[in-house]
Design goal:
single chain; mainly beta; Tumour Suppressor Smad4; five-stranded mixed beta sheet
């Protein structure tokens, strides 16, 4: 039997049997015991959880890197210390992939991260942009699906999902490379 129903979070039409909304990513059947943490935007671009606490971790390594990536589910911080463009993806044994950030050691394959998934670009004026590189499982920025090959502005505290790998972008504007 095929049919559709409406996501209660965003109003997107989903097929019966879908576990997650393909538009906003929310878990459609919370009664099965899984929970989804809700985030709300506050003060423009710093995301805070519903209890009002700032999500990014305090870490001295992040303070010296212009941009750091905080892998939310496994609580690992990856500082991006040098360069302007950072290609993110996952390596694969026996295949050469030119990456700046490799998520293979962090369950990248299991989370659906493509070999060349997305690119972060740091500009001298303090702006940071994220581009999906045509990944198989897509990229979401603050829950919104990104179109491939289109640069989106990223701000301190934004949540990015590469497939199912969730990370938070931490930006130190005073340390951006000019």
């Amino acid at each position: 039997m095929t049919g559709t129903f409406i996501c209660q979070n965003c109003g997107h039409s989903e097929y019966l049997g879908a576990l997650f909304c393909s538009e906003c990513g929310i878990h459609l059947h919370p009664e099965d015991g899984a929970t989804t943490q809700s985030f709300k935007a506050q003060n423009g671009n710093i995301l805070q959880d519903v209890d009002g606490e700032i999500s990014p971790p305090k870490n001295t390594v992040a303070d010296v890197a212009p941009v750091s990536l905080y892998l939310m589910d496994i609580e690992i911080l990856i500082p991006l210390k040098s360069g302007h463009d950072f290609v993110m993806g996952r390596s694969h044994p026996g295949q050469q992939v030119d990456l700046d950030v490799d998520f293979a050691p962090h369950d990248g394959f299991e989370c659906g991260v493509s070999r060349k998934h997305a690119k972060l670009k740091l500009q001298g004026n303090g702006q940071v942009f994220l581009t999906d590189l045509g990944s198989a499982n897509g990229t979401r920025l603050n829950g919104k699906k990104m179109f491939p090959q289109r640069a989106y502005p990223v701000f301190h505290g934004d949540i990015v999902a590469l497939g199912k790998l969730k990370l938070q972008v931490l930006i130190q504007k005073q340390n951006l490379i000019s």
